[in-house]
Amino acid sequence: MLSKNYQRKIIPVSWCNFLTDYPDIFDSIYSLDKKPIMNLGKQNVAPKQPLTILKQSFNRVDKEIQIPEELRELYLMYRPTPLCRAVRLEKRLNCNTKIYYKYEGNNISGSHKLNTALAQAYFYKKAGVEHVVTGTGAGQWGTAIAYACKLFGLQCTIFMVDISLRQKPQRASLMKMFGATVYSSPSTETDVGKKALLQDQKRMGSLSIASAEAIEMSNRTEKTQFAIGSGENCVLLHQTIIGNEAINQIEDEQATFPDYIFACMGAGSNFAGIGLPFLRKMAEIGNACHLVAVEPVACPKLTKGIYAYEVNDFSGSTPISKMYTLGNDFIVPGIHAGGLRYHGTSEFLSGMYYNGLFFACSLGQLEAMQAAALFFESEGLLVAPESAYAIGGAIKYINEKRMPLENKTVLINISGNGFFDFAAYQDFNSGNLNDEYPDPVSIKESIDKLKEKNKF
Ligand SMILES: *Cc1c(COP(=O)(O)O)cnc(C)c1O
């Protein structure tokens, strides 16, 4: 194990407040006069969150935000996370691109989600909250927040997407072991859930339904509040610990800075977390650095969606945001990468993408799992199906020479481990894995509806 001194030297002391790096984008998104009041949501109540966290989401002044010492001490449990060179993968690909990866799967949640869960639980506790309610898709977020709540003595209720709960019941067991109450969503606990049950006969569920259920419950009592695993600026901010830490590691080892960074794109927290600190750093030292977001063909919000105002959740009770989206009632095929099944993208990242500040590509799940299998053989790491897309994207760019990657350095963010995802690997190994293309008609219908609401 690393010495505590080394750990304390490498674990960042602050988060990178990227909001201050793009003032024009900040203005274009958050100036009130630009937000049309539309017939999208019922009442646009903001989910309840402590002021400290809300302030983090809209802080346009402080370039760096200090990580509280108590929280840094907790990060010592599993940080710094490994930054490694994938030497054997480079050999297998027979390329002269240097490939580094940062591995965030080394904690009980199995993913980067614990970074923000600990931060949110810390700030909630400080704000006097007693009960935290949330929705979880694949279950990494649920596990992370259940554990964080346990550490801070907070009560925790989790709505878990039904299809994921059936695929990964072990994750729900972990949450319960940490004392959380877990409901399969859609549930009969809330009005939103009951309404969704009527429409969703196959009981697939979706993160937007689970979140809507959590928001409804969080509005029942004063001391109950809503926590969220991704998308919000504050969550992206907490995740910049990944990029800041990788920068410290590279400087400490005098290794090469990356020219390209690949991360999978759900609502954007691991992508922003690794990428945005590097964009700042590279601009400071005058080098170019390109970010590539990799999304599944099953849920192609950046590559096939539109930039439009949309509600974030199924009930339409959250504030509208302008984002790349496929529409909030678009039903995403049941791919293994549950964490990438969200219909939209972070508001701020959407603004950045609209302004051409990063690239995006989409990948079928077969190609992603092929990449994960190759990574497993060469590096000995079983990665989450979500992270498989980041690896697959990088391999695709290298093999297809999409960009001049010869003699360049690539950094891949491995957002999680695949220990609860054997089903994905089994399907892949037995040849039962297909590329799940969404029905083009359903994408078109959902987008037409959006255009109508946005009056395009
Ligand atoms: C939640 C999750 C994702 C997707 O979420 P982002 O906010 O886009 O990072 C990706 N990988 C894993 C392992 C996850 O748990």
Q: What oligomerization state is this entry in?
A: single chain
Mean pLDDT, rounded to whole units?
A: 91
- Note the total helix count: 19
What about the largest sheet?
Answer: 6 strands, mixed
What distance separates the N and C termini? 57 Å
- The general outline is globular
- Give every kind of bound small molecule, once each: pyridoxal-5'-phosphate
**How would you write the strand order of the largest sheet?**
3-4-14-9-10-13
Number of strands: 14
What fraction of the residues are assigned to beta strands by DSSP? 15-25%
Which bin fits the share of residues in helices?
Answer: 40-55%
Chain-wise SSE layout:
Elements: H1 4-10, E1 14-16, H2 23-30, H3 51-57, E2 64-66, H4 69-75, E3 83-85, H5 87-93, E4 98-103, H6 113-126, E5 131-136, H7 140-152, E6 155-161, H8 162-167, H9 169-177, E7 181-185, H10 191-199, H11 207-218, E8 224-226, H12 233-253, E9 260-264, H13 269-285, E10 290-296, H14 301-304, E11 306-310, E12 321-325, H15 347-354, E13 359-363, H16 365-379, H17 385-399, E14 409-414, H18 422-429, H19 440-454
Parallel strand pairs: 4-14, 5-6, 5-8, 6-7, 9-10, 9-14, 10-13
Antiparallel strand pairs: 1-2, 3-4, 11-12
Helix pairs in contact: 2-15, 3-12, 5-16, 6-7, 6-12, 7-9, 10-11, 12-13, 16-17
The chain binds pyridoxal-5'-phosphate (PLP).
Pyridoxal-5'-phosphate binds next to α7, α13 and α17.
Task: Give a brief rundown of this model.
This protein is of the alpha/beta class. The protein has 19 helices and 14 strands.
